[in-house]
Amino acid sequence: MTSTDTPVNESLVKSVTEYVEAYMANYDGSHDFNHIQRVLGLAKHIHAHAPHASRRDPLIVILSALLHDVGDKKYLKPGEDASSLVNDLLVSHGATKELAEKVQAVCLGVSYSSEIKDPARVQELIKVHPELAVVQDADRLDAIGSIGIGRVFTFTGARTKASMDDSIQHFHDKLLKLQSMMKTDVGRQLAEERTRRMKEFLQWWGEEAAFSGVDAPPA
Question: C-alpha distances in angstroms, 10 versus 7, 70, 71, 104, 172?
């Protein structure tokens, strides 16, 4: 039996989904439950179409996609420990210790900032947990393209003293770099078109911003 044929624990997925929906209700619109649902859909698509699916556990892909933002440092609540929050949650919902530890490891590996600090560590982690490549690509795909554009402005708009110029700078600081950081062929293919859309948007922005007399960053 291949990994893609492995039965998924539907009751566990259902209870975790309900928890995540309530948890994400406290986040701003850039990281709400709709984001989680899109990442989950992308992760399932990548898992189904990427080579070597038998090496990946679909339950780990699903749970990690659902939980990847639980404990995000941007929204971490007082007293919460990001290094064990997902693990403890899954165990409390009936997951085995082994499954909980694997999903926790994947969730901790998704972060862009942690990969920038130590790219080699992420590559080594993917060798142990190949599901990470799928979930990481799915999360980054939702950060780019037309939805990514909307999420950038939503996120900066939720921050005090943030401006539209801060949003535009974020494209150059991070989002335009994500295509080159995709780990799967499917992710790279999808990222190419989404990156093209962002570049086109930035070109439009530059043309319109020119009327203010202030130079916009190059697309």
Answer: 9, 20, 23, 19, 40
The pLDDT value given to residue 216: 57
Tokens at residue 191, please?
């990222």
The count of residues in the chain is 219
Residue 162 pLDDT class (50, 70, 90 cuts): confident
Tokens of residue 79, six digits: 């007293």
All residues at 6 or more sequence positions from 196 whose CB lies less than 8 Å from its CB, including other chains: none
What's the rounded Cα separation, in Å, for the pair 150 and 203? 16
CB 62 within 8 A of CB 16: no
- Overall pTM > 0.85: yes
Amino acid (1-letter code) at residue 82:
A
